[in-house]
Amino acid sequence: MAGEPSLGVLLFIAYRAMENRAFDAVVAAGRDDITMAQAKLLQRVNEEGSRLGELAESAQVTKQTAGYLVDQLEAAGYVERRPDPNDARARLVCLTDHACSIRPVADAAVAEVEAEWAAHLGGRRMAQLREALARLREIADPSAK
Fold first, then answer.
1. How far is residue 43's CA from residue 107's CA, in Å, rounded to a whole number?
2. Domains and CATH numbers, the chain
3. pLDDT grade for 1, boundaries at 50, 70 and 90
4. In this structure, are residues 118 and 126 in contact, taking their beta carbons and an 8 Å threshold?
5. Does residue 144 have a pLDDT over 80?
6. Are 73 and 116 in contact (CB under 8 A)?
7. Quick one: 48 exposed, middle or buried, by C-beta within 10 A (0-12, 13-18, 19+)?
8. What pLDDT score does 47 carry?
9. 21 membership: H or E segment, kind and range
10. What span, in angstroms and rounded, lies between the C-alpha atoms of 35 and 17?
11. 11-16, Cβ contacts within 8 angstroms, sequence gap of 24 or more
């Protein structure tokens, strides 16, 4: 309908609200040495490590910007660069224990938001929303295949 936000905007608004709550919880837990930009990149580091180019693509930033953010995260002790065992010329950005200790705080904030949404929408609608978004991921997320 004319004048109403597109579905993409509505999805972004919901995502941004959840992301802000998780970030605020991390800061409230004493991790005020990380910025939102750093956190956005940090959440994209795979468990086994990620190449800088992959992080840049995933975060939709230039490789230079990703490198700058990784430098900052490394200086703060959130990541470390290690040799890629599959390619001697490449390096992986890997999470440290310091970074992994943030995850339970952020996960708890996300769970709290999801519970609020479920209370607002009702259990059935929340389950339908999750199912619909999971189905859309099949065609929208190349890494899901």
1. 11
2. 1-30+102-145 (no CATH), 32-96 (1.10.10.10)
3. low
4. yes
5. no
6. no
7. exposed
8. 92
9. helix 7-28
10. 16
11. 14/117
- The answer to whether 84 touches 51, Cβ cutoff 8 Å, is yes
CA distances from 2 to 5, 6, 8, 119 (A): 8, 9, 15, 29
pTM, rounded to two decimals: 0.84
**Structure tokens, 107:** 């996960």
Block residue for tokens 């619909």? 132
Tokens 């800088």 belong to 52
| Mean pLDDT within 102-129 | 96
Report yes or no: 56 and 16 within 8 Å, Cβ to Cβ: no
